Amino acid sequence: MAIGLSTYAFFWRKLSLHDMLKQTNELGCTVFQICDYPAVESLSAAELADLRDTAADLGIELELGTRGVAPEHLHRYLDLCKQLGATLLRSMLQQTGDSVSMLKETMPAFESQGVTVALETYEQVPTPELIRVIDAVGSDALGICLDPANCVAGLELPHDVIDRAAPYVKNMHIKDFAFTRQAGWVGFTLAGCPLGEGLLDYDEMVAVVDPASRGINQIVEHWLPWQDDAETTCLFEAQWTQHSVNYLRSKS
Fold first, then answer.
1. Is the model's pLDDT at 172 over the cut of 80?
2. Which of 16, 87, 122, 123 ranks highest by number of CB atoms within 10 Å?
């Protein structure tokens, strides 16, 4: 198990990938996940090699993240994984449809290159249905990126998501979350909060998943709301990231 950061930990700070890598290293993390970052698709072979070399020089393992399972798209990201030396690709289903047939078509290529695909738990597809798709594909290189926070919007309880997904987990997104009352008591806001201060039962999650013995990386990200101005928001983001890394280390 390693602690890593995602591009989602730099959502408000508009840094280059190289600067994100440097900050990842400065925080003592050894994994960086380039997640939902379409600009990576337009990098030249030389730029990708430079990014891979920077990560290697800093002792950082790269992971990639995208959305969707269309074969052409997944093959494009498999090529990016090869160029960056990444062995894990996080993706997501936004509907099930013909996802089983598409994944059956593409997974042999991932298996042959030693790249794992981790489909994230999200409200768009209930966790039992996500598991049904994974079972139907039947590839050891296909599993789940666990993030129980996302499923609350689909009325799934976090502990249910954790219990169901645990045997399939290949990657973990670590963020905490909480409900707060809207002004006037008209509804709630579901948003992020510092790790350990919200509704994520982290201790239960790691007890069930056991990432340490299974070599599952834990990737820090946030749902940090805008804090009225850019300076304050970026400051909070940096503080939340440092706090999350410290929290995970205190639990290891």
1. yes
2. 122
